[in-house]
Write a structure and sequence with these properties.
It is a single chain. The chain is 29% helix and 39% strand. With 153 residues, it is α+β, with helices and mostly antiparallel strands. A 7-stranded antiparallel beta sheet has the order 1-7-6-5-4-3-2, covered by helices on one side. It contains 5 helices and 7 strands. The relative contact order is 0.24. The mean pLDDT is 90. The longest helix has 20 residues.
Length: 153
């Protein structure tokens, strides 16, 4: 994270393995199911080239289609099933840690704050995003988890 930039940290505990949580977090088809902070938004497009120097992109629109948000970044560090460090297009740093014990994964997201929005508003948005990831990942059945098709999405 940037030395002099305030950061926001949020986390959630997911009742799934780190491997499944990682796949859910990083697979574009699965990102469609969780990568928004509220039901008011629709995930319009996802792209994830999961390698150092690769691009991640999520485009959201409101249900009415009159507002859109785009989150883009470049991977700076990746540790399989453990860590993602991303430099966002706007210059902010984003770090996601996946820590697992048995089939429970703690996901911690830390991001540089932006000055034009209150801290608590930013915290609520990022926490909602992780809450959606938790709900989506925990909804995956044992049958789906054990099938090859889950990882092919």
């Amino acid at each position: 994270m940037s030395a002099n930039t305030p950061t926001i940290t949020v986390n959630t505990q997911i009742n799934q393995s780190s491997e499944l949580t990682w796949e859910t977090f990083n697979t574009p088809a699965h990102m469609q199911g969780w990568a928004r902070s509220s039901a008011d938004w629709i995930v319009k497009e996802t792209k994830n080239d999961l390698k150092i120097g690769g691009e991640i992109k999520v485009i959201l629109t409101t249900k009415e289609g009159n507002i859109f948000l785009q989150y883009c970044g470049i991977y700076e560090a990746i540790e399989l099933n453990k860590l993602l460090k991303i430099k966002l297009e706007d210059g902010r740093n984003l770090e996601i840690n996946f820590n697992s014990i048995h089939d429970i994964t703690n996901v911690t997201l830390t991001i540089d704050e932006i000055s034009m929005q209150p801290t608590d508003t930013q915290e609520i948005g990022w926490q909602s995003l992780l809450d959606n990831l938790k709900t989506y990942a925990e909804s995956i059945s044992e049958e789906v988890k054990n099938s090859d098709s889950f990882y092919e999405k």
